[in-house]
Design a protein that fits this description.
Blueprint lengths: L1 H27 L7 E15 L12 E16 L2 E13 L7 E16 L3 E13 L16 E13 L2 E2 L3 E15 L17 E12 L6 E14 L5 E13 L4 E10 L13 E13 L2 E8 L1 E8 L5 E10 L6 E11 L3 E13 H6 L36 E15 L2 E15 L4 E16 L2 E14 L7 E17 L3 E17 L6 E13 L1
Antiparallel strand pairs: 1-2, 1-25, 2-3, 3-4, 4-5, 5-6, 6-8, 7-8, 8-9, 9-10, 10-11, 11-12, 12-13, 13-14, 14-15, 15-16, 16-17, 17-18, 18-19, 19-20, 20-21, 21-22, 22-23, 23-24, 24-25
Length: 531
């Protein structure tokens, strides 16, 4: 119970502090007139017909689902702060064939406040969303299914100080607090056991960095410390902690040598003895003959080779190979980022490996599609909530996850058509459960704007999940949507644009677990307006 009391106290203290600072700046600052506010209320209404409301091939039930969702988008910026808040109240009738009224809250908020100009900052974020219980039984929204989902609530606050010590050094000192809580109140009886596996948590982070200033020309140095302690209501706690120092000597513009050393002190429950703490060191050199490419190699108990290629403004590539004996992600690992941009097309490839937790993954989830990226939105209304079909298995929510992720994406635009496609592969190793997930997926989209306010779109998706968990098994999911959207001018005191859409969708999932099999066909009529 103490964790909830402390959380309530911290929320009150944070709110009062932010209110005092904001009020002071608003009423007494000379720059108040420079604050730019944009408040955009919205309303979305949908009527959905599904031939399988419960997403079960054993007991198919057809019917209509009604949705009324008011929302608000608040954006504010000034030389001393910025705020971005997107909130949506989703009201549903007969979701999942329950013949009941359901209310879902969805929130995404980020803010940055300068308490002292360019010196002291306060960063906050908050989110509320509904997520899939498992990556082997996938629902893409709150409209259908047997309510096998969890509500994720996250809040964080991070004050930080960026001092400058003349021309000698620059610093960063940051502390952070994050609270993650999960609720399965709207879930079925079987999924309520998730609360025993996916724990509420509090995370306390600390970061300190001191780097050389402009006074140093031939020698540059950095001292770094970072830690993240995740305290859980149930299950084992997790700590990631690292001390690092490095120095680099520049012989000339093309050649430099470096040495890096530090200490890793990580702690989490493991069954494969994958935590390797201790002292690490690397020494090496970099060759940078031009602005177009460079090569760096380091040797020690932690080794790496990094190649950077940037032959033109259209192409950039960055690839790193590491072999680590100490720290997280020991052994061989890769990081890669390649981007090619042409006048009408772009191709991007990324590959990364990291160690994280479900709590951190859900806290970093994108809750809403970007209103300014209509082409990449998965709905006719870009403000609508988008479920991520490639989440970790929340049934293993208290495990630490070693992620290996690869993604290849492509976009092309010509005339009135916009095309996009992506291929992805995610490999997850869970500790201490020793479960492995291997997820392959592909998605594509075509949007044809054959009239300035009339669009036809086609969006097919496919995903295959192989899991070593006996309870999860393997599954494949196919999803294709065909829709038509049209913008219509309306006059509600001022001219507004209302987006209307009609969509037909087919979803089929096959799984080793027979209760996860389902086929759904649905038709959706929607209109949405931003005031």
């Amino acid at each position: 119970m103490g964790i909830h009391k402390n959380d309530n106290k911290l929320h009150k203290i944070t709110f009062r502090l932010f209110a005092i600072l904001f009020s002071y700046e608003f009423f007494f600052s000379e720059n108040v007139s420079a604050f730019d506010w944009r408040v955009r209320p919205s309303l979305s209404m949908s009527e959905v017909f599904s031939d399988n409301l419960e997403l079960s091939d054993n007991a198919k039930k057809s019917g209509f689902v009604s949705e009324v969702s008011p929302g608000i988008l608040i954006y504010g910026s000034s030389p001393w702060s910025n705020l971005n808040l997107n909130y949506r109240l989703q009201g549903l009738h007969n979701a999942g064939g329950s013949d009941a009224f359901d209310i879902n809250h969805q929130l995404q908020m980020n803010s940055l406040y300068q308490a002292l100009r360019n010196t002291l900052f306060i960063q906050t974020s908050s989110s509320i969303s509904q997520q899939n219980i498992s990556n082997t039984f996938i629902t893409t929204d709150n409209l259908t299914g047997n309510n096998s989902r969890v509500e994720s609530k996250n809040f964080s606050i991070s004050p930080y100080w960026t001092p400058h010590f003349g021309q000698y050094a620059n610093g960063l000192f940051k502390v952070g607090y994050q609270k993650s809580s999960f609720d399965t109140t709207n879930s079925n009886t079987a999924s309520s056991a998730l609360l025993n596996q996916l724990s509420d948590s509090e995370s306390f982070s600390r970061q300190a960095r001191l780097s050389s200033g402009s006074k140093f020309s031939s020698v540059r140095w950095n001292l770094n410390y970072s830690s993240d302690d995740q305290s859980r209501v149930t299950g084992s706690d997790v700590r990631f902690e690292q001390y690092t120092g490095d120095a680099r000597y520049y012989f000339n513009r093309k050649y430099n040598a470096f040495i890096r050393a530090g200490y890793e002190n990580n702690d989490f429950e493991t069954a494969s003895d994958s935590v390797n703490n201790g002292f690490f060191y690397t020494f090496g050199a970099q060759w940078n003959p031009s602005m177009f490419y460079s090569l760096e190699a380091g040797y020690g108990n932690n080794k790496h080779v990094t190649v950077r290629v940037n032959p033109s403004a259209n192409l950039s590539a960055f690839v790193t190979f590491q072999n680590k004996e100490v720290g997280l992600n020991t052994g061989n690992s890769w990081d890669a980022n390649l981007l090619y941009r042409a006048k009408q097309a772009s191709v991007r490839f990324t590959y990364s490996q990291d160690t994280t937790t479900v709590q951190q993954v859900l806290a970093n989830q994108l809750i809403f599609a970007d209103p300014d990226e209509d082409e990449s939105s998965n709905t006719s209304d870009p403000s609508l909530l988008v479920f991520n079909p490639n989440l970790p298995n929340l049934g293993l929510g208290n495990d630490v996850i070693i992620n290996k992720q690869a993604n290849l994406s492509f976009t092309f635009q010509t005339g009135k058509s916009f095309y996009n496609a992506s291929l992805y592969n995610t490999r997850r190793n869970y500790e201490p459960s020793l479960v492995e997930d291997n997820v392959y997926g592909a998605s594509a989209g075509w949007r044809w704007q054959f009239d300035p306010r009339l669009n036809l779109y086609l969006r097919p998706n496919w995903q295959s999940t192989d899991s070593s968990s006996t309870s999860a098994g393997n599954s494949q999911r196919y999803d294709v949507a065909l829709g038509l959207t049209r913008g219509m001018s309306i006059n509600l005191g001022r001219r507004l644009l209302m987006n209307t859409s009609l969509e037909f969708r087919h979803i089929k999932q096959q799984s080793d677990v027979s209760t996860n099999d389902y086929t759904e066909n649905r038709a959706t009529a929607n209109f949405a307006v931003r005031f």
